[in-house]
Amino acid sequence: MPTILEYLKQHSTDMEETLVRLARAESPSRNKRLSDRCGRVLADLFNELVGGETEMIEQQIVGNQYRFTLGSGPGQILIIGHYDTVWDEGDIPLREENGLLYGPGVFDMKGGLAITLWALKALKHAGVPFNKKVVFLVTSDEEIGSLHSRTLIEEEAKKSELVLVPESSISNSGAVKTFRKGIGIFRLEVSGKAVHAGINPWEGVSAIDELVLQLQDLKGLDDREAGVSVNIGTISGGTRTNVVADYAEAVIDVRFRTRKQGEALEAAFRSRPAFTAGAAVHVKGGINRYPMEETEEVLALYSELKAIAAEHGYALGHGGSGGASDGNFTAALGIPTIDGLGPVGDGAHAVHEQVLLENLPYRAALIAQLLARHLD
Ligand SMILES: [Zn+2]
């Protein structure tokens, strides 16, 4: 009996074909017709390769979503993925060159879907007993904020002891993601009092002057060492050079590594007394996603993966991302979540999006063996 890795290596060409079939079925998040077609390709692949329970969760606006289930038992392990991509139909061609497959969604994250299917197939082939339920949940709107899938993901996560996210790994290195930052978006709206800038400037209240003071103060929350960033993304305000501005606003993006930091940021943004008499500050927005924190449990999962990789003869790194994924939702519920389990590649959301083909069996084996350890 070949090992899981040997078995997957024997099927490396088939794995590539699985990925090509998924990538060829282009699936822009906002095109339901194309998305649904991709969903059907995925369901066909699951039935052909793995076999198990397939449930389609019908959607009105975005592509239909799928819950694939294997095994049974008291515990549950959840694998989450998305088949939508940031690309419109025909934006970038699918092509293979020097052992790399380029194309829409190959790295983010159809490569991850392909290796998950093969990891499950390899486990079945190896006769690993599924003493727990394994749910592979694939959604269709991650790239546009997961509005139509968040509840589904959270409900499934609550039943799970562990969440695996085969999203793109850290570019080129293949390192997995043990943390993802949380995100908040705030809009500061400042109002003042307009007057003629030449006749009676000191009788007005400049909303712009007040906004500058507010922004300087908020910039003080930026802490590189702690991983907290405050980015003033846009500002606007005023009407004419000879008028004291009665309105100004700014939109600010904040990123943070821990829930505690997020809560502190939220509190600082919520309470904004004006520095200038007569000015008023209104704050809109808030925390959008809480972070996937690098907890002890997550680092323990990474240690397991590292040991599997060492068995396969290579060193697996870990790191994090300032960008969020659906893993942020599951981690925020307190379920240990490890992300970036997808293939080695580069160029998520970029025209050079690519994956390293010869490495696919290694990545599938990584997921398969981690699952095997937790299915016991
Ligand atoms: Zn993704």
From TrEMBL:
Cofactor: Zn(2+)
Ranges where the Peptidase M20 dimerisation domain occurs: 180-271
Keyword Metal-binding: yes
The keyword Ligase appears for this protein: no
InterPro entries found in the cross-reference section: ArgE/DapE_CS (IPR001261), Bact_exopeptidase_dim_dom (IPR036264), Pept_M20_glutamate_carboxypep (IPR017150), Peptidase_M20 (IPR002933), Peptidase_M20_dimer (IPR011650), Peptidase_M20A (IPR050072)
CDD domains, A to Z: M20_CPDG2
UniProtKB keywords: Hydrolase, Metal-binding, Zinc
Name this polypeptide is given: M20 family metallopeptidase
Organism: Planococcus chinensis
